[in-house]
Give the backbone structure.
Amino acid sequence: MAIRKVARMGHPVLREKTRQITEAEMGSPWLNRLIEDMLHTMHEYGGIGIAAPQVHEPLKLALIEFDEDSDRYPDMGEQGLMVLINPVVTALTEQTQGFWEGCLSIPEIRGFVERPSKIRVDYTDESGASQSIEAEGFLATVFQHELDHLDGTLFLDRVKTEPQKTLIAFTDEFQKYGPPETPDAVPASI
Ligand code: ZN
């Protein structure tokens, strides 16, 4: 196992087109090693999700894992480790919800993003089995944030803008003063 360096915004790998993982690659030693490295990297950096492009691998692969007692993401519930291979997300409602998101590739910044509040994700798990999961609330946002990475999209691309105002803040100030002018929003860092 190894901890990999996380690509930060501005590195072209975060904008690259990702490729599907083939059936022959499923369960292979290199894929298992990559998944293990991504898990250790996510833990080292304190993230709750990580996508392969963030560790310089333009592949359709992402991990999600978070627990209830996390300092950085309090009151967000919990989700055991999920390995998402070749995932596809489908919105199940036009209704949206907003969270103050963060990203390991955009450190120290939060931004307010509205996304569909209920989604389905179809994917292959690490054993090679097809899976389908529906998600609501914060988990739905985490999925969409991570799977955006597989399309070269970063959360800042989706930050809500209003006339004369873009909803972005530094993490320190955000924690000190609270979310700027979005009293209903919940702080989240992904
Ligand atoms: Zn991210």
